[in-house]
Each structure stands twice: as C-alpha cells, then as structure tokens.
C-alpha cells in the first residue's frame, strides 16, 4: 500500500489498468498520506504540517475513483491516466469544491463552472483530490502570501516550497498526489518545481486553455503540469492541452507531441541537439551550490551527445523590471472584478453605506498586502502621466526579450539555465523584502514574457545545503516537445547516478485529524 504514494503516475496507471490495484485503493493511499502529513486545511498544524491543501474532497475523490474502476472493469477504452489522482491549484474553478485563490475576498464563492482543464481531467477519468495552496491570486514566490498560512517544503519543513504554486509542487514532492496542475505567470510552476525537486512545465502560451483559471496577468498566465517525472508531466499535459473555443487566446494548432518526445528522450541520446547556455542567467548573485549542480547538468547533456554552446540574451536583464510593471498592470485591471457585488466577501453592507463604500471596505478587508501592492503599482503604471514611461517601456522591453529568444533559437534547439538563483529559502526570510522575493523568478520570467515553452527538471541537490536544484529547459513556442525530449534524456541519465535523489522525503506523521 505505502509504495503506492511514491510510484510515478505512469506506473500507477499501468497497475490500475491491469487491475493489479484499484483506483479506489490508490486514491485511499493518497488520502491517507494527506491525512498523515498535511495537517488541517487552515494550516493549524503549524510547523509540522506540509499544508499543501486548502481543501480535500475525500468523498468526491472516492466516487471518481469508483467510476474509473467501473469503466476499466467494463473493458472499454480509457484514457492513459484514468484512475490516477491529481491535485488542483486553488485558482482553477471547480463546481464541487470551493475556489479561494488563497484570498479572503472569495470567501464562500462557488464557481458556476469547471475550468476547461478540470473538465478535461474529469472526462479522462482522473481523480481530483482537492485544491492546493498558493500565494494569494498567484502573486508571490513562496506561498507565504496565502491568506490561509504557508505551505512548507517537504524536504525541509522550515523552508518555503516556492510559489505561487507551492501547494501543488509540495503535494507532489510529499507523495500526497502523483500529479498536480499549477499556473505559471512568471515562474509559479517551474520555481516551486525546482525547489521541491519535482518537474514543472510551463507550456507554450495559448496551448492550454485558461478558461476557468482566475486571471492574474492574462498575457502571461499559463496552466501546466507538476509531476515527479518528465513522462508523467507529458501525460498530464496531453490530457489538459489543446484548443478550446472558450479561451480567446487559445492557439488553434495541434498540441506538440510531448508524450512521444518524453518517451524518445528517455530511450535515446541527444546527438545533434544544440543546447545554448544563457550567459546572462548565471554568475553573481547565484548560490554557488546551484551553479555547481547546473554545471554538472550541462556536462551530462554534453555526455549525452548534445552540442553545448554559450549564448547571450542581453535584454534578459530587463525581464524582471518589465514583468513587475506588466503583470501588476494587468492584475490591477483583472482584480477590479472583485467589487463586493459579484463574488464572495461583502463587508459593511448595512443598507446605509453607498456601493463605493462597501466596495472599498470589502477590498480593504479581503485583499492581502501583496495584492494591494500590485494593484497600486499597476494602477500607477497605467495612469495617464506614467503610461509611456512605465507600462509602455515595459512592453518595449518585452519585444527586445522576444527578439533575444528568436536570435538564440536560430543557433540552438533549446536554451538552459538554472531554474532559480537559490535553493528553497527559509520561511519568513524574504517576507519583508519584496525585491528579494521577486528575484526568485529571475530565470523563469523571460519565457513568460515571450510566451514560449519552458520546464524545470530536478538536477540533484546543491552541495552547500543539500536542497533540490532545478535545470530549466526553454524551447521555442509550439516546440514544447524539444524541452521534453532533452529533459527526459537528462532525467534518465541522472537517475542512474549514485547521488540520484530519493523519490519522496520521509515525513513524520502528524497526530492531527481532519
Ligand atoms: N513570483 C511571480 C509573481 O509573484 C510569479 C507568480 C506566478 O507565476 N503566478 O508574480
């Protein structure tokens, strides 16, 4: 029973479909693991609980698992991941579970529809376990901006699991779920993936529907998979990806063959693949142990036959400042919908106060400090007197970054960098220093601004603190398969090394009950 929580999703699916084990048993094992290590969904287990989940739907999960078992017993065709449990970031709408975005402002709101990705998971027979913690409205790099308390990194409970999707990545790292979905606006799938030792993928912008993803920065937001292996991520990617007419920015093109690429990568070498090491994404400010693990990973890519070259992307230095104008600008507009009338919380509506007063009391009480900071920055950047100098300039920098990628991809098939400049930092360490917090996404943001594909694959641990490090692989738009191939080849090579990481950490069971 207990090894079930450390198996890959692909292997779980194989056993479920061969009827060696039922989806109900697999689901129960994961619910038990959640019960043992996660603590109550309000975070009250404190420093001993992972607190990856804001809501666990045990009954719903077991019902979905029973349905999957029935479909398999009937012998008809089932999807490759039918019966496998999955966790959902709590900014994806679900009709049968609350959607909070880790914000008080959505208190009591029940979405009237499922996000397209959720509908596709259900249709494919996957088993949603619950909703995972995040920085409020996905704004943050540590999951400490959640209104419901931080998630803890399963490899060291005193450290952050990254953010904003720390709950999704931590649930996968801790063996609470074999798979999870996240959203990546500036790195929120890849950065938590890197610091929790899991795989995280930001697909090409527009290739996974955003319908039902509560919008943060619409030109950057992208849903993607979290998993413990590259193949598992590809399998989930294929379930949720592809054109959706409910999303105006959905690309009407075939999904890149990500599963095929993951399988080919795991079997083959990298002969003929040109890998560019981005000079601007290393050096000063990077933790020495992260650079050591990254250098080792690049050496492995070379040993696998890849042609490794240095490339320069000089405009990447503008990525962070450009992002922190564009993302808040779009957020200030997107979050205007939380007006106390249409969703969740309403404060001070005593029949005497004006609509404006109720709205400002509600927004004052409902939004946390970081969300307010972003709304103010964004409103300022878009204001008549500042628009050209701030938002307009950031958009120009965005164009330069796109051009850097285009030039680099003329000579390289993929680009690589560390996913993050440091390993997981301590809980509390950066909460009072927003700029230090923002630096966590230094390497991940360029791919969001350009809209191309990028993923993070574990590349061992940092020799200076023993914590996981991520290798980022970036590919051109609609060439996600290239990143998967390189990552799978690397993962296979790495898994046979003597210092290959354990599958999941040992976590002390909590005495709490839900
Ligand atoms: N950490 C970045 C931010 O705070 C990215 C967040 C994300 O990708 N959702 O904006």
Summed up, the helix count is 16
Q: Could you say which small molecules are bound to this protein?
A: glutamine
The counted number of beta strands is 11
Helix/strand/pairing category: alpha/beta
In order across it, which strands form the biggest sheet? 1-3-2-4-6-5-10-11-9-7-8
Query: Would you tell me which CATH topology of the largest domain applies?
Result: Amidase signature (AS) enzymes
What is the radius of gyration? 21 Å
Distance between the termini: 21 Å
Describe the structure.
It is a single chain. With 514 residues, this protein is an alpha/beta fold. The chain has two domains: 430 residues, Alpha-Beta Complex (Amidase signature (AS) enzymes), CATH 3.90.1300.10; 76 residues, no CATH class. 38% of the residues lie in helices and 12% in strands. The chain has an eleven-stranded mixed sheet with strand order 1-3-2-4-6-5-10-11-9-7-8, sandwiched between helices. Helix 2 runs antiparallel to helix 3. The longest helix is centred in the last third of the chain and has 24 residues. It is globular and about 70 Å long. The model has no long low-confidence stretch (mean pLDDT 96). The structure holds glutamine. Belongs to the amidase family. GatA subfamily. It catalyses: L-glutamyl-tRNA(Gln) + L-glutamine + ATP + H2O = L-glutaminyl-tRNA(Gln) + L-glutamate + ADP + phosphate + H(+). One of its GO terms (molecular function) is glutaminyl-tRNA synthase (glutamine-hydrolyzing) activity. Heterotrimer of A, B and C subunits. It comes from Actinomycetospora cinnamomea.
């Amino acid at each position: 029973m207990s090894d079930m929580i450390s198996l890959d999703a692909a292997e779980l699916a194989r056993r479920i479909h061969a009827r060696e084990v039922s989806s109900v048993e697999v689901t129960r094992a994961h619910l038990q693991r959640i019960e043992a290590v996660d603590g109550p969904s309000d975070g009250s287990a404190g420093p001993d609980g992972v607190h990856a989940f804001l809501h666990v739907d045990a009954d719903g999960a077991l019902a979905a698992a029973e349905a999957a078992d029935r479909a398999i017993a009937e012998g008809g065709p089932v999807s490759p991941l039918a019966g496998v449990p999955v966790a959902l970031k709590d900014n994806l709408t679900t009709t049968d579970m609350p959607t909070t975005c880790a914000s008080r402002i959505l208190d009591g709101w029940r979405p009237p529809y499922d996000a397209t990705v959720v509908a596709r998971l259900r249709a494919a027979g996957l088993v949603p376990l619950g909703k995972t913690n995040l920085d409020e409205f996905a704004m943050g790099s540590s999951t400490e901006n959640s209104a419901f308390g931080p998630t803890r990194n399963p490899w060291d409970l005193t450290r952050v699991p990254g953010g904003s999707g720390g709950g999704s990545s931590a649930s996968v790292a801790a063996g609470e779920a074999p798979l999870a979905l996240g959203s990546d606006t500036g790195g929120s799938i890849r950065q938590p993936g890197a610091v929790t030792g899991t795989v995280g993928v930001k697909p090409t912008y527009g290739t996974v529907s955003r319908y039902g993803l509560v919008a943060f920065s619409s030109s950057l937001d992208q849903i993607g998979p979290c998993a413990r292996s590259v193949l598992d991520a590809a399998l989930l990617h294929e379930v949720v990806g592809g054109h959706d007419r409910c999303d105006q920015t959905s690309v009407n093109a075939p999904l890149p063959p990500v599963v095929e690429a993951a399988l080919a990568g795991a079997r083959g070498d990298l002969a003929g693949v040109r890998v560019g090491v981005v000079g601007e994404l290393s050096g000063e400010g990077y933790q020495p142990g992260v650079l050591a693990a990254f250098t080792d990973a690049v050496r492995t890519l070379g040993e696998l036959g890849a042609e490794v070259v240095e490339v320069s992307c000089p405009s990447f230095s503008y990525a962070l400042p450009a992002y922190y104008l564009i993302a808040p600008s779009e957020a200030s507009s997107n979050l205007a919908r939380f007006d106390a009338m249409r969703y969740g919380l309403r404060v001070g509506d005593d029949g005497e106060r004006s609509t404006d007063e109720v709205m400002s009391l509600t927004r004052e009480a409902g939004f946390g400090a970081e969300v307010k900071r972003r709304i103010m920055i964004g409103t300022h950047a878009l204001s008549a007197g500042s628009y050209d100098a701030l938002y307009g300039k950031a958009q120009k920098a965005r164009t330069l970054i796109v051009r850097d990628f285009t030039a680099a991809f003329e000579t390289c098939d993929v680009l690589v960098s560390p996913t993050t400049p440091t390993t997981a930092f301590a809980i509390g360490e950066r909460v009072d220093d927003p700029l230090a917090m923002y630096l966590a996404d230094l390497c991940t943001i360029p791919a969001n601004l350009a809209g191309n594909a990028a993923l993070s694959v574990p590349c061992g641990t940092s020799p200076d603190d023993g914590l996981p490090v991520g290798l980022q692989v970036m590919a051109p738009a609609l060439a996600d398969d290239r990143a998967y191939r390189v990552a799978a080849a690397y993962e296979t090579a790495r898994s046979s090394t003597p210092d290959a990481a354990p599958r999941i950490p040992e976590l002390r069971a909590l005495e709490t009950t839900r």
